[in-house]
Structures are given as C-alpha cells and as structure tokens.
Design a protein that fits this description.
This protein is of the alpha+beta class. Helices cover 30% and strands 22% of the residues.
Length: 148
C-alpha cells in the first residue's frame, strides 16, 4: 500500500489512475520503447513530486498508477508526464515518428480518476499490472468492488 506524503504543513495520500492513448491508437510501444518510457518516468519521479506506483503498457495506450501531492493538479501531472515522455521517446526512438505524423506522440485526450472512488488501490494496481499481457479484457462488475 502507498504511504502518506508528509510536508511541513500537510499530509496527503492522493492516487490517480491515468490512461494515455497513443496518437491515432498506433501500436508503437515495442519492448524498447516501453523500457525508455519507464526510465523517463523514473527521472520524472526524481525531479517532480509525481511517483509512479505502477505502469502498464499496452501496444497503443498506457495505464499509470500515480501518487502526487495536492500542489500539483491532475492536469499539471498529465501535462508533465505526457510532454516529457513524448519528447524523450521521440529523441531516443526516431523510428516511432514514422508512424505518428504531426509531431505528437499522445492523443490530446486522457482518462484520469482518483483511486478509491470506484475501486480501491489494489484493484487498480492489479488491473494496471495486467495490461499488455495478451489477456482478454475482463469487465469487473460493480458488485466485486470494495466500496467505502
């Protein structure tokens, strides 16, 4: 389980489930690109107060389980993650640009949800871990979820 983040004047436990689709839903997340993405996310964690608890890569989208602080809005978190990962992937893997014209790696849209509203952290963690493992998508029925 995640730990609270302690600051001089606050204590928080903010978790977000973020899903970012690749532009045009192109299947460009090879093993090498996925490794680069994870390395960039580690660097983001060191520079910003954005901590990646899980990263699940599928070929055309990525799921993140992120913990951050109240000073960073969800929009700021998304912009930071998307801009820095895209820049580094294009820099280190120029072959990806062939599939993504227009200079954009991510779609302009995304999905973000606070963890705990519809599912608890463990349910989201297992879901994110299962991404990209050639499994059939299994819908989780509301009755299976542990709600507060």
């Amino acid at each position: 389980m995640s730990e609270h983040i302690h600051k001089s004047h606050n204590k928080s436990l903010l978790l977000y489930h973020l899903v970012c689709p690749i532009k045009y839903r192109r299947k460009v997340l090879s093993e090498e690109v996925s490794v680069t993405l994870r390395e960039v996310c580690l660097e983001i964690s060191q520079r910003y107060e954005i901590h990646f608890l899980e990263i699940g890569c599928d070929e055309d989208h990525i799921h993140f389980l992120i913990q951050s602080v109240p000073m960073l809005s969800p929009k700021k978190i998304v912009n930071t993650v998307k801009s820095l990962t895209a820049r580094e992937i294009f820099r280190l893997h120029p072959e990806v640009k062939r599939f993504l014209w227009g200079g954009k790696f991510w779609t302009s849209g995304y999905y973000i949800n606070t963890v705990g509203q519809y599912a608890n952290e463990e349910v989201i963690k297992k879901y994110v871990q299962s991404q990209g493992k050639d499994q059939q998508y299994q819908k989780i029925h509301k009755s299976q979820l542990k709600l507060f």
